[in-house]
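Q: Give me a protein?
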Amino acid sequence: MKLNEFYPKTLIEPFRIHSVEPLRFTTRAERQKALKKAGYNPFLLSSQQVIIDLLTDSGTGAMSSNQWAGMLASDESYAGAASFYRFEAAVKDIMGFNHVIPTHQGRGAEHILFSCIAKKGDIIPNNNHFDTTRAHIENNGAQALDLVVKEGRVPSLVLPFKGNIDLDRLEMLLAEQGRNRVPAILLTVTNNSGGGQPVSMDNIRQTGAIAKKYHVPFFLDACRYAENCYFIKTREKGYETSSIIEIAREMFSYADGCTMSAKKDGLANIGGFLALNDDTLARRCRNMEILVEGFPTYGGMAGYDMEAVAKGLYEALDEEYLSYRIRSIASLGEKLALAKIPIVKPTGGHALYVNAAEMLPHIEPLQYPAWSLTNALYLLGGIRAVEIGSVMFGMQPDGTEKPAAQELVRLAFPRRVYTQSHIDYIAEVLTCLNEQKEVLRGYRIVSQEPVLRHFTARFAYLG
């Protein structure tokens, strides 16, 4: 039988749905009441008040039947559990570091690492620090310095690796300050605060070379490592025929360690780790782990969590899964572009970012345009997203406030949870919102905490 080749236009999920969770559809009046009661802070909403939850991709994914099967065979021993050794073996196989320190999630790894290496007066550079990373650094008296390339600060610019760190500025910093004031270099892959943009292998390699030149440890924030590897494969010359795991192994080979929230590309609902090569630092970190997380062979995780992560780290490297995930988010970007909604281009791996500063130019930065857009998205369509703007990053260590570098609304997609019909609904809601954006007004903060204020702050609407 001679048939022409079939090239499908329909994007289908590379999985079958084995179990379902019903959505509760709310009315506009219910959402208005709920948001007001929550102090106009989407973090303070109950999940039952949300139709589509894009607040975060952290720990919100659907686990596979293989992960659930592994969880049933877990070892919950306090010390030396078999589940830990399977978890450790997976991390070492993919990432290659000598020491694996389990934690309850990524911020546990950040707390341990920065408590051991950062002190007052230090400077820790990164392409862009995300919220908890910055908070842990500043909590130890150090400065979290963003050195993303200038192209990464232009949302409309289409380039393959806008998450890269500025190598010239990095070397200038190290030449001026040296290891005495720079205890480590970080690189977040993909660059969450900068629109989910990837970092090239060449940039990672050169960062590692600069770190070695100045004898400064180099760590990756690796929570979305698999997505970054996929972008390297599809966008960077020389990696077209490499497997995702081969790319991952090379990427980690240039670093001295990593922190990871396994709630992202570990495809688990909880868990994380700190991995590193330095024996002396590892000993100090394990001592800190015993104090704040738990015994070194479980940290903050149960045995079944370690089993889920051990399998999830490999599942996240599946090329068909990555291709679908990234293409799905790109398809939403295409729909929004047709509706003339400004977004960060090109679309990232785990999320789509709307440029609220451009969409709502009539709202002043310190009246929080991205926060306003986030709340409007919930009111209109029951969609919960997160602001990455002046609420999240405007508060300075000395208590003053200044506008953030960008005003973005992040739509972060849980892994293996939503289908293409959900994507179409999100596009419809945003299109409708864009058509009436002039009626939106800003917010003022009524109450806030001095650290990570966006999680708990309460607001008043200025309309």
Notes: The chain has two domains: 28-57+319-461, 65-315.
